[in-house]
């Protein structure tokens, strides 16, 4: 006990989460039993599956009460009394090895965290199969269980009374408890109530005055009939007590998507993303994963990228909130999404993961890999859907019905691309498994795209019959590239060339080798083949001496070879990068990075 108390000391808050999670488990159990036997719920208040928190400030008692399954005398002894139960010793063993203290819940010893804040604990419990019992212990290794004849009968369930330590008086504040519940247990599946006081103005009757007298004194005779007994009142302050609901029981993700309005989704986004702008999220996906690993999730694309999304790319934390069976575990859990999708916000609620596990433990958990895989897939599907539903994305010929109702989706993908396009590119670099899926989401300008953005699928649809490769060129801006001599011949022959103008594009193209069996060819590099040219051989022969002379002359300038080529139209000569060398643009980028 000493080890538990001392080692968890810095994280006292967790006791409430542990108690609420136990209460919720007990409620889950009775609810499950009630599925087959409604009788077990009893009647009246006992049927209310809820959790109540109450403060007795004068006596420094914090009590948490549930109407769950309760504990029999044996249960109390077995579950709470036996400190030597296997979980405890396993936990202590881990602690001695310097394990993670937050593991406490995992070893089935979460209950003992009550001694972080209390020096005396009473547990009153009533199980359907037994009388009401009281368990009490002072954290000294001893406990007592006896039939409870003193306290009010509970009907069914458990009340845990913490006699708070002097140094734990912060938990005697309603605000503090509210804050903890909202932080850790907001989405517990059962209502959590706090017994709360409120100062209200109440109208009390002033000195008793005769009604008839008043009516008589009314000046306006016509309204006599309406002027009912308006007794003289005065306002006074009065303290009233009431149960205040602390959580939104209808956890959004547990409901069927059909029942959830767009507004609900937006509100939920704002609550979890702590986004105060009020802008609607760009899109969301809400789904249930079934099979070996079961979980529910809602993923959001925020309306805007955080300003430092790419500056702090590698240190950014993901924004997903991880729940295990409605119990909040962590929102800094990095292993649920790859870096390139860290801009997503949302929640994952898993039924498969163990409750209250530590970060280290979760990382090693196999289900986690499956969850991650499915989240990525769903996120990419969602992004794809934005593109599919955006009328601006369609090819001109597909754009038949241009009705105004689609306005909401119009230009949405461009908005997405402008905010998060770089993430897609980083994804192509980082995620080999989903490279092709991500490549489908790429957008760019090209020699044929005009003002619009084009996709690789559109490019392929526009390819010329004899064209084998996808042509692209890299540089610092579209304007600069449009006049590049490298494009002369290609434009003349009607081939489309992609403009890649973002510095990351150079890296991107080192990973994106092909798409739909078509290779990518940088037109400023060696290897561009523009069909057969019968004249080429002849020209090579007649300019042999000149090429040789050039080569010797430029040997000291890092020139590899000098060739006669058909890639130009009007410009007499051009410097081309060798196949595996850095493009001129890449050289420029590297240079700017070292400056
Ligand atoms: P865990 O919740 O991981 O089992 P705890 O130390 O938190 O470990 O609780 C120990 C056991 O005590 C629980 O498994 C449960 O059987 C019992 N228990 C604790 N709190 C309650 C409660 N409010 N109602 C019914 N049983 C409870
Ligand atoms: Mg527990």
Automatic annotation (TrEMBL):
Annotated residues for binding of ATP: 18, 22, 66, 71, 79, 85-87, 106-111, 158, 359
Cellular component GO terms held in the UniProt record: endoplasmic reticulum lumen
Annotated region (Disordered), positions in chain: 204-233
Keywords from the UniProt entry: ATP-binding, Calcium, Chaperone, Endoplasmic reticulum, Glycoprotein, Nucleotide-binding, Signal
Endoplasmic reticulum as UniProt keyword: yes
Top-level division of the source organism's lineage: Eukaryota
Major localization listed first in the record, in broad terms: endoplasmic reticulum
Compartment annotation: Endoplasmic reticulum lumen
Family: Belongs to the heat shock protein 90 family.
Protein name: Endoplasmin homolog
Organism of derivation: Ceratopteris richardii (Triangle waterfern)
Interval of the full protein contained in this chain: 1 to 595 of 734
